[in-house]
Amino acid sequence: MRVASTGALLAGALVLSGSALTATATAPAAYAAETGVEIKKVSVNGGKAIVFGTSRTESFTISVTASDDSGINPNGHRFFGIDREVGDDYWTYHGTPTCTASSATTSTCKLTVRLESDIDLPRNTLAGPWNVDVQLTAKDGDYYGETYGTHPVQRRSTLSVNASPEPVTKGKTITVTGKLARANWDRYIYAGYTNQSVRLQFRPAGSNTYTTVKTLTSDSTGNLKTTVTAASDGYWRWNFAGTSTTPAVVAAGDYVDVR
Q1: Distance CA 128, CA 196 (A)
Q2: What's the CA gap between 187 and 181, in Å, rounded?
């Protein structure tokens, strides 16, 4: 049986143009020089990597909690953005956040970014760490404007598995194939992810635990193929740990009946 699995999907007013904070719970206090505005917490996409496929249906949120002794001005200059530049390639998602006060001094400001079907995706070269830019104004005119940190933006991955024949006689050979692919933002397709280490894992029937049997490297088209000896009923799957530009993905187990 052929089984496919798709890599991590992100959860989450917008301007897009172009040619994470890594998972944060409570960030250290950050001040712009010569002002009293304090950034207490920054969260991009809930601390998860932003992952784009090819459909341009994703969304994510940038949330910043900030304080000033005069309070954050909900109508003052406000700007959140995330961007990256590599050589001649540049892309940015940015806009004006909405700020809600939780006290006289502290507010949480949020910007939700939703991709649009008629706007291109970034180039493949831009997968990786993106700068997170925060600009806020206090009621007394204090101003914060800095690149606060970086957050990963990745190309969505897919991984398939097929174990056959099934059923199979005990002691005979099982062939396990699959393909590792990822979103190609330049061409709007999923293309094989080559020369990547992928683990073949097995879970016996009645067990909840997968064990790594061997590790392979995807070929020049992202394909995987190996053989194993049929010993007992169970599930076979491929497991890819991910890279800085591509999220981890695990294929759903393919069951083989051994007789």
Answers
A1: 17
A2: 14
224-239 mean pLDDT: 98
Q: Give yes or no for residue 11 having a pLDDT over 80.
A: no
Tokens representing 170 are 């005990």
Three-state SS across 148-170? EEEEEEEECEEEEEEEECCCECC
CA angle in degrees (0–180, nearest 5) for 21-195-231: 105
Identify which of 92, 113, 129, 124 has the alpha carbon closest to the alpha carbon of residue 188: 124
Q: Is 139 left (phi over 0), alpha (psi -120 to 50) or beta?
A: alpha
Which amino acid does the sequence have at 141?
G
pTM of the predicted structure, to 2 decimals: 0.86
**CB 179, CB 222: distance < 8 Å:** yes
Distance CA 106, CA 25 (A): 17
Tens-place pLDDT, residues 114-139: 999 888 999 999 999 999 999 999 99
What mean pLDDT, rounded, does the chain reach? 89
Mean pLDDT on 101-107: 98
CB 208 within 8 A of CB 217: no
Question: How many Å apart are CA 187 and CA 211, to the nearest integer?
Answer: 36
pLDDT at 35: 64
